[in-house]
UniProtKB/TrEMBL annotation:
This is Major facilitator superfamily (MFS) profile domain-containing protein. It comes from the Eukaryota. One of its GO terms (molecular function) is transmembrane transporter activity. Gene3D superfamilies: MFS general substrate transporter like domains (1.20.1250.20). Its main location: membrane. Pfam families: PTR2 (PF00854).
Length: 599
């Protein structure tokens, strides 16, 4: 009887592992993953949506300082996903990164909830909002530590959840296929919108009418539920092993290309080094095809006479595969499009805080006994986004498909461009509504009373929320889809983190913009005064950011026109099942080698 060889045993173990991996994942994991993300979004929305009120009314912060504080920590919370994504893609995996990030986020929520419950952790109340005692250094440090913990926790959650959910379906063809990819992102965004809508109605009402203890306690409880739901589903998840640090792979390409800067790349790209076995872990659903852009980087895949590729793998700091070279090219091509989102965030980073302060000066009565909380006005934007996503899928896509022939109606770049235009319109609408609000205040001689209620309905603010909601349908979903679709598959967590990094950088630049406007527009006619918005020039600020967005739109159109989509050689079902690829011969400068490649 023939005894099995060690190689045969390894192959059998790999086959068993692949078979078991196919049984994991699928639609049955979605209740656990989405329960985690919905509860997380509910918690974060309930926590952040009305925080400007907590800082100005409970901690007695001046408006600009409070707005900058929130924007800075929002920027930090949008930067940390890049770190979390690198950790997930390099060694920890997405499951553990999400779990640890959720726990850290929970610690931040517990801390700020305690600060709202214990009177010693906040200054005395100041109903008049004049000559108020501001929070002490110790009280501010409690706030900052809480916000920092939530920012760090966000870094583990945001870049990994959507990609972890996509991992459960294996090949992109299943639910993320070429014709249905947009469907996944629309409905993912729709679920998150429902969670945000619930938070903006329930949690904000509790904060305004019951108290901040319960108002922050409810999100804290929701976050605990999200962690439990996610961990319970652990035995069902398909957990893809991390493929190593993407930054190291990108660095290897640059170093190898630099070392071979004097070499001449072959005219036939098929002569460049390829090794499917080496790239198997980072190209599960397809290999990147050689492109003619950035040909200098191709030198990293040139096989010289002095190199031996019989060893597997070769020295990757001197010789890399075409797939790895194309990973770097893909990232380089994406960056200009990604950067266009930064100034968009800059222009809108403080709008939410300012709109809440506008709403607080307006008539918010729905009836004689009920007032709508200022932060709850965001529900109109969320409702517009939710209904817009449904209409986008059911009406816009079929109609656009008739004219364009594109499976998704329009490309993700076209979708983003439409969103840019609509966002400019939303900001201009905001400026005219502020002019109307102040004209009514002037007519009733209320400009010098910061606590006065101007006799104008708060529902004048609704149109700008609705237009912003329509912009979200196009811009935000399109941006996320672009980053996921065009990034190398082994870097999708990192690509999702780029989405949040753009938000981070935009928030920081937005803080700088607001600070400069506040500093240099004078004391008597300051555009953004600390206490009395009626004497400000908020409409001028809106016009300024509208102009920034117009310049950004021009830049985006140029970048989108020049963009080259990622070429991909998809793995066939036969290749996935058999794991065998044809034998290839690579010959250059008299060097001939035969590579038997197995996926």
């Amino acid at each position: 009887m023939d005894l099995p060889t060690p190689n045969k045993l390894v192959e059998e173990e790999d086959d068993a592992s692949m078979l078991n991996n196919k049984k994991l994942g699928g639609i049955k994991t979605m209740p656990f993953i989405l329960a985690n993300e919905i509860c997380d979004r509910f918690a974060s929305s309930g926590f952040h949506s009305n925080m400007i009120t907590y800082l100005t009314q409970e901690l007695n912060m001046p408006l600009v300082q409070a707005s900058n504080t929130l924007t800075n920590f929002s920027g930090t919370a949008s930067f940390t996903p890049l770190i979390g994504a690198l950790i997930a893609d390099s060694f920890a995996g997405r499951f553990w990164t999400i779990t640890v990030g959720s726990i850290i986020y929970e610690l931040g929520l517990v801390s700020i909830t305690l600060s709202a419950v214990l009177p010693s952790l906040r200054p005395p109340p100041c109903p008049t909002q004049q000559n108020c005692q501001e929070a002490s250094t110790f009280q501010l440090w409690i706030l900052y530590i809480s916000l920092l913990l939530t920012s760090l926790g966000t870094g583990g959650i945001r870049p990994c959840v959507v990609t972890f959910a996509a991992d459960q379906f294996g090949s992109d063809k299943v639910i993320m296929g070429r014709s249905k990819k947009w469907n996944f992102f629309n409905w993912y965004y729709f679920s998150m919108g429902l969670a945000t809508l619930t938070a903006l109605t329930v949690v904000v009402y509790v904060q305004e009418n019951v108290g901040w203890g319960w108002g922050l306690g409810i999100p804290t409880i929701a976050m605990i539920v999200s962690i439990i739901a996610f961990v319970i589903g652990s035995p069902l998840y398909k957990k893809i092993e991390p493929g190593g640090s993407p930054l190291i792979r990108l660095a290897q390409v640059i170093v190898a290309a630099f070392k071979k800067r004097k070499e001449t790349a072959p005219e036939n790209p098929k002569l460049l080094y390829q090794n499917k076995e080496l790239d198997a872990a980072i190209s599960l659903h397809g290999r990147l095809v050689h492109t003619d852009q950035y040909k200098w980087l191709d030198k990293a895949a040139v096989v010289t006479e002095s190199e031996s590729v019989s060893s597997n793998p070769p020295n990757l700091w001197r010789l890399v595969t075409v797939h790895r070279v194309e990973e770097l090219k893909t990232i380089i091509r994406m960056l200009p499009i990604w950067a266009a989102g930064i100034l968009l965030v800059t222009s809108s980073s403080h709008l939410h805080s300012f709109v809440i302060q506008q709403a607080r000066t307006m008539d918010r009565h729905l009836s004689k006994s009920f007032e709508i909380p200022p932060a709850s006005l965001s529900i109109f934007g969320i409702l517009t986004t939710l209904s817009g996503l449904v209409l986008y899928e059911r009406l816009f896509v079929p109609l656009a498909r008739r004219f364009t022939g594109h499976p998704s109606g329009v490309t993700c770049l076209q979708r983003m461009g439409i969103g840019f235009v609509i966002n400019i319109v939303a900001t201009i609408v905001s400026s005219f509504i502020e002019i109307k609000r102040k004209s009514v205040a002037a007519h009733h001689n209320l400009l010098d009373d910061p606590k006065a209620i101007v006799p104008i309905s708060v529902f004048w603010l609704v149109p700008q929320f609705c237009v912003h909601g329509i912009a979200e349908v196009f811009m935000s979903v399109g941006h996320l889809e672009f980053l996921y679709d065009q990034s190398p598959e082994s870097m999708r967590s990192t690509a999702a983190a780029l989405y949040w990094t753009a938000i981070s950088m935009g928030n920081y630049i937005g803080t700088l913009l607001v600070s400069l406007v506040h500093k240099y527009t004078g004391e008597n006619s300051n555009w953004l005064p600390d206490r009395n918005l009626n004497r400000g020039k908020l409409e001028y600020y809106y016009w300024l950011v509208s102009g920034i967005q117009v310049l950004n739109l021009i830049y985006y159109i140029i970048c989108a026109y020049l963009y080259t989509y990622k070429p991909l050689e998809e793995v066939t079902e036969e290749e996935e099942e058999d794991g065998e690829f044809n034998e290839k011969k690579i010959s250059e400068k008299g060097v001939e080698l035969t590579v038997n490649e197995t996926a």
